[in-house]
Amino acid sequence: MQPTLSELQTFLNQNEIPKIKSKPKTFLGIAKQPHYENVLSNIYAFYFDVNEEHKLNDLFISSLLEVINESNQQIETFVNFEVLTEFSVSDQKRIDILLQNTDQAIIIENKVYHHLNNDLDVYYNDVAASVKIGVVLSIDTISSINHPHFINITHLQLLSKVMSNLGNYLLEARDKYVVFLKDLYQNTINLSQPLMNENDFNFYFENQQKINNLVTYRVEARKHLEHEVKRAFNTLEEQDLNIRLYESKGELGNKLSYFESTIDKNLMFTIVYNGLLKEERTLKLIIELKGKALKDKEIYRGITLSGKDNESFYKSKNKVYAHFAVKSYQLEQKDIRSLSQVIINKLNEDGFISTFTKLENILKLSK
Prior knowledge:
Elements: H1 5-14, H2 27-30, H3 37-48, H4 59-70, E1 82-88, E2 94-100, E3 104-110, H5 120-126, E4 131-138, E5 150-154, H6 155-165, H7 175-192, H8 198-206, H9 208-238, E6 243-247, E7 256-261, E8 267-272, E9 282-290, H10 311-315, E10 321-330, H11 333-337, H12 339-349, H13 352-366
Parallel strand pairs: 3-4, 4-5
Antiparallel strand pairs: 1-2, 2-3, 6-7, 7-8, 8-9, 9-10
Helix pairs in contact: 4-6, 6-7, 9-12
């Protein structure tokens, strides 16, 4: 049975709705490459190289050895090694990262979302070293690797150890590579941890029906706004204003509507109403010109909404569209319910319609 409005109000009064924290953006995420294994392998190789210009010296190899030794594998020292990526072995296979000196080797298989189906025997047997250990570096813990000389370490385990040891290296390190390292660490956290924590997830399922009904109310509230905008259009159309309703498709269609001039489609009112469902409850009214109507802006000089020219319109280099006049209104709740009348009143009383008509006449004459 659907809960009543009273029951929903009680639910809101008695429960604090959890705020879901979005994951911080990283440069790898912005570049759309947060999980590519070869990209991450190249970054790791750069930091493992003690002679690279990051000046973090042995931070990465020391941290890796700590994690390896915590897993009951022992490598006391590991120095004078080279760092190789995509190292070729038998059967046209490649090791993601190989750390190797004359006697020792650490074989690293880098996994993010792919399954572990690599031939670890080939990797291990084809590396010439008297002391060697394999590491499967993964996002999630792998319960069984099925190879006696390979251990599993998660990316987060390794980088958490790196970050805990970082303080000892900061004095010599180059700042920008420390910034890159922090970004890599955040990227690893983003990949390793779910968006919602357990309490947030449980809250949803414990209150699923009520939350779904609240979402429905939000959808209905948006439909109310769309209906009111259309009512405003119908009223203006009856006032012999030369306009037609143009509704945007996709995401924009939930945010704004255009009242387009039938004399020249490059002139329109833009009604931006998505802010009304936010805390600030903002309505924005715009007279917008676009395309061919922007070729000679000087013909509009002297037509103003507030008694002075909108200089940002004349200075704009945008050849696609420009806002000739803009005004924002913070509405009361009661005003939102009768939004169509508010739109009509603002357009009339604040000079939007008279300005629109003057622009329309100029465009008609310029044809």
